[in-house]
Predict the 3D structure of the following.
Amino acid sequence: MNQAESGNRTKSPVIDVRKVTREYLAGTFTAVSDVSFEVQEGQVTALVGPSGCGKTTVLRMIAGLEPPTDGEIVVYGNSVHGPGPERGMIFQAYTSFPWLTALKNVEYGMKILKVPPVERRKRAMQLLEEVRLSPAAHQYPAELSGGMKQRVAIARTLAQNPRVLLMDEPFGALDAQVRWEMQEMMIEIFQAENKTVVLVTHDIQEAIYLADRIIFFTRNPGRIKQDIILDFKAGRRFRKKEELLEQDGYIRAEQQLFAWMREEIQN
Amino acid sequence: MSEQNSITSVQTGATMVKEMERPASSRKVPKLPYLRLLTPTSSRETLILGVIGAFLFFLLWEAAHYATDEESRRFLPSPQHVVATLITLIVERNFLSDVLISAYRIFASFFAACLVAVPLGIFMGCFSRMRALINPTISGARYLPAASFIPLLLVWFGPTDTQKLALLFLGVIFFLVALILDNTESVQKELIEAAMTMGASRWEIVVNVVGRAAAPAIMDSMRNMIAVGYTYLVIAEIVAAQDGIGAVMMRAGRFLKVDVIMAGILAIGILGVLTDILFRLVAHFLFPWNRRRKQ
């Protein structure tokens, strides 16, 4: 943990969440209370916690889809006042546009950024290859499985080359086997694209597998309970999930997270 | 495990006998095969059943015709007589031009209604403040019967075509706006949010995300509302009209020519079915992505 901090002291953080509070229902319900954290370049951070702990709200505020009631979020030195393509978001719900083929979906974001058509097509094909969806390039989302739809959404977001990737329970709607495939695919993407990632999940194993750092939230109101660097991974990312399970320290990390989760549920 | 089994069999000795009978009873033909829940019908069977249904209707009509005593039989002509009258009208009395005039009135007025309702419905569906401003007034207008505008429209436009188009327009516009507003609001919120995080502009989202996502549902609303337009056709063509299916029917009514009235009804029915098919075909080719949606 110290190592991570000292190593990055000279650089300013990519995401700086400063004393952020989010209230709903005219201040009668506090979803997020006084949350502060910094995310460094290239770091994969998982926001974990029980349902209703405000982790998704924090992510949505970083995305600019909701304003904080109090506090400020700064991304690359700019205060967040709304969504923008430098912060790509992947949702739990399938958001690939049903009226566009997989290929056109991936091109859509680049069209918004006014990338010329030839270059757009080339990069889209390349990304579909990367998410192993080339054979389905000309199919509509209705003809694709849940996992494939999500891959379209991931490719579409990556196509805009965002500096920050925000993922809100991206594999929550998928069945266990597909989720596992997607997680291994994400590791490859993290390696290839070197993105700064914030991932919201309630899946403890997923958090440990994908993230370098885990911020654990407590609920009522949503606050940070613990902020840990997964030291046992020593910055490594494992192509195969079973390689992670072999690591010394993996079990301890999982036990620790389950213990926190239990504390939260029983409170 | 076996111990548990033996215990249950002892406890439920009487029910065991019944359970052995059950497989035999399930082999029987299920009761009420035409009233089975959650059972889709093949497209071939759908077609056959549809034809049978129509045939039964004409059979009932035929039966009713012959059941009527001879003096009043001409007030309930047989189906083949009505069809024959329709053909005679077309061949000998240029009825087709009346049909075309009616079709023109329906389509022109409906096109105008869509020109207003589609942008307005999407606009209100996208921006809740605009909805709050406009919708109460418009949804209130749905309770005004279109026919009550006839005197007003006659004063404004006289017995012209414009007056008829305006009536048909008023008959559908308020409902159409309400339906399209609903279609727009049903668009999955995450599609809009995804577009926002990609940096799409407000109007890009309104037109190319919300508009396109809602388009098939809007097309369905249009198909249903043009059918309502047909219900106003005769009302529009009763008052101060010389041409159109409704006018022909009204004239026939004065001379108690029931066969002509019924031929007019039949003509409207045929026109309506063709319109429905047209809308379905357009939707089929316009939204290939929506043909077979799995989720």
Notes: Residues 190 and 251 of chain B are 57 Å apart (CA to CA).
